[in-house]
Amino acid sequence: MFLKGKSAIITGSTSGIGLAYAKVFAAEGASVVINGFGDAAAIEKERAALEATSGARALYDAADMTDPAAIAALVRRCHGELGGPDIIVNNAGIQHVAPIEDFPADKFEAIIKINLTSAWYMMQAAVPYMKAAKWGRIISTASAHSLVASPNKSAYVMAKHGIAGLTKTIALETATDGITVNCISPGYVWTPLVEGQIPDTMKARGLTREQVLNDVLLSAQPTKEFVTPEQVAALALFLCRDEAKSITGANLSVDGGWTAA
Ligand code: NAD
């Protein structure tokens, strides 16, 4: 249990990849703060299960990642109730698929706020605590779309490229403070976020569900398999180990070979 005594905040962890991060940190004894939206009873069940796994505390905080004040309050709450934060994972994200001329401005603004700006505010709030502790791990879920583009995802690709730049910058700013800052860039991971974009992609490209799965999503991935949330979380856990302390400012692909092509 190498994370015993440490605390981790994982944004957007009520489902998908975020919940997988929370589970691996809890399994190593960390106290965790989960965040995101969803059914209250289902969230409480996950929270209680995390506490049972870790033997430490697990909190749920409903901070909306579009709200900088709520983000700062989330970090202060973690510090007050659990200590740290020692680990932050910027993971909350949404998607919208449409050509630029049809892209609703409110969707564009929401994607930039949730997928990109929130990570800047999280880092601004957490770095002073990490510097004082002389230890910290900052991990962001970027995407293969931090390295390459796809049509009809202008806001998402813009946000994820931004995460890659933010990662490099804060890695340089914290390099002598015992803090590492990295992003993980998954290819297609089977989660509610991917499921949700299938109808829009069918509409935008005039395709059937099967065509979207095989000709759009998995066509990019040479392995022809979806990445799993557990594979992404395993890399995040490794980044928290002392053996990973020289990995900083990196953008690590877990994409079945997508960006090698
Ligand atoms: P998901 O839809 O399962 O999870 C998204 C999480 O973000 C949920 O917990 C949701 O409640 C939360 N969220 C949404 N809006 C929020 C807000 N305003 N404030 C707080 N939380 C909010 O999706 P996922 O696939 O697990 O995605 C997680 C991250 O991984 C995202 O950043 C996504 O861009 C990235 N990613 C996903 C894939 C993929 O194929 N699924 C690939 C690459 C990167």
Automatic annotation (TrEMBL):
UniProt-listed Gene3D superfamilies: NAD(P)-binding Rossmann-like Domain
Keyword field contains Transcription: no
PROSITE patterns xrefs: ADH_SHORT
Source organism of this protein record: Sphingomonas oligophenolica
Pfam families associated with the record: adh_short_C2
InterPro entries xrefs: 3-OHbutyrate_DH, NAD(P)-bd_dom_sf, Sc_DH/Rdtase_CS, SDR, SDR_fam
Family recorded in the similarity comment: Belongs to the short-chain dehydrogenases/reductases (SDR) family.
Name recorded for this polypeptide: 3-hydroxybutyrate dehydrogenase
